[in-house]
Amino acid sequence: MTTASMLDHLALSADAWERRLRADRELIERLMPDALRDLHGVVVARAQQVGARALILSGSTARGRRTEMSDLDYHLVGNKIATRDLSFELDLHVLSAEEIRTEILAGDDFIQWSLRFGRIVFDDGTLLEATRLMAELRPWPKIERKREHAAKSLELAHRVVESGDQDGALVQVRTGLSLAARAYLLSKGEFPMSRAELPDQLLAAGKTGAARALQACIQGDPPLDVLGEAALEGANLLERD
Amino acid sequence: MRIVRTVARTRSYRLADPYDPSVSPRAKHELAREHLDRGLAGVSANDATEAVAWPFLSLEAAIVSVADNHGLDTQRQHWKKAEVAAELHASGVLPHDFSDILRLLNEGRKVATYDGDEPDLEGKSLEDIAADVLTAVELAEQEAAS
Q: What gap in Å lies between CA A120 and CA A62, rounded to an integer?
């Protein structure tokens, strides 16, 4: 099923939405690594305690594609919860129901990603409404916005490479190259998946160099000169056809 | 990006010389100081991305520098560095716990870089954060000199 027809299916049928919720809960149970189960449990409990409207498990964990670099990402709809005493692996994005709508309309790709591919922990109907909005309006993330962020990030990455800080350069090049990959895929009508899946998507699009460079930044420990080349691959992705 | 492109296209495969940064990594406390200076320039220029990204890299480098001196492993994941920062404080090596500032800077870096939005610094000013990072850099420099 394409993502567009998936959206239609989910948005038009209450039964389909209920099936998704059930399936997502089962998948979360299956995909959550043992080492993160307690953390997940605390996040869910605290979200429910503050009366959150919805919680989505997002990112690579939701896709079953975690790497050693992966955070544990969530979108929380509602009030903030206390996180200072929790693991630094947690990456919680808090927003209101109104902000979901605003961000969808503004072309933000992250919330659209979570609604399409995330695993819903619980929902009071807010996410169903947002999914219906997406099915109705077919908003496509703003490519130019992504390109601008990618260009700025790659320029910063280039300077970190030049500074001679390999650890820092790896972080920044991986960020810039991922952003460039997302901008490129969006420009080709392809919705970018989780970071670990981007190299395969780039390969399928014929961008072999960028795919290998990103793979090296995700799984390897490339030296500075290779990181400089990876930043170049990112810049190439941003060049217009 | 033009400069990167030119450099990368002329790269040839060769044996690295002993001073090649890829085989002789720069000292972390030196990198921490240089990154902080770049961050302070970002604070002066009111550039949120620069003012958050460089102090983040500076603080990470400072913590790794201290951790290396004490034989603590700092793995590639950023949260391991934050864990080590907390551990160094708990064991009395660092007088301050820098893990929270590191978390704040990392979240701010992501917001500024991925979304292009103003980072939420939880009521702290960029100057206050830079002052905290400076403390860490100075501690790393003292450790390296001792």
A: 9
* C-beta atoms of B76 and A170 within 8 A: yes
To test the contact with chain A by mutation, choose from B22, B35, B59 the residue with the greatest count of A C-beta atoms within 10 A, namely B22
Contact A232 B8 (CB under 8 A): yes
Interchain CB distance below 8 Å, B57 and A168: yes
Domain membership flag for residue B124: yes
Q: Domain A3-137 falls in which CATH fold? A: Beta Polymerase; domain 2 (3.30.460)
Whether residue B116 and residue A232 make contact (CB cut-off 8 A), yes or no, is no
Provide the pLDDT for residue A118: 96
Domain that holds residue B134: 17-145
pLDDT 10s digits, A3-54: 656 666 666 678 888 999 999 999 999 999 999 999 999 999 999 999 999 9
Number of H helices, E strands in chain A: 12, 4
**Interface contact A30, partner B, CB < 8 A:** no
Q: What is the mean pLDDT of chain B?
A: 83
pLDDT in tens, A186-223: 999 999 999 999 999 999 999 999 999 999 999 888 99
Inter-chain Cβ pairs, chain A and chain B, closer than 8 A? 101
Q: Which residues of A touch B113 (CB under 8 A)?
A: 149, 152-153, 156, 175, 179
pLDDT computed for residue A26 by the predictor = 97
Instruction: Tell me how far apart the alpha carbons of residues A117 and B124 are, in angstroms, rounded to a whole number.
Output: 35
Nearest to A164 among B3, B31, B53 (CB): B31
Residue ranges of domains in chain A = 3-137, 143-238
Give the residue from chain A lying closest to B111, CA to CA.
A93
Number of domains forming the structure of chain B: 1
CA distance to partner chain B, nearest, from residue A237 (Å): 12
**What distance in Å separates the CA atoms of residue A130 and residue A118, rounded to the nearest whole number?**
13
Tokens representing B73?
Answer: 């492993």
Examine residue B6 and state whether it is found in any structural domain, yes or no: no
Residue at B37 is within a domain = yes
Q: In this structure, is residue B7 part of a structural domain? A: no
The C-alpha atoms of residue A21 and residue A35 are separated, in whole angstroms, by 24
Q: Can you give the pLDDT at residue B40? A: 95
The CA distance from A48 to A22, in Å, is 18
Phi and psi at residue A26, in whole multiples of 5°? -65, -40
- Residue B68 sits in a domain whose CATH number is 1.20.120
pTM for the complete prediction? 0.86
Say whether A231 and B22 touch across the interface (CB within 8 A). Answer: no
> What is the CATH code of the structural domain delimited by A143-238?
1.20.120
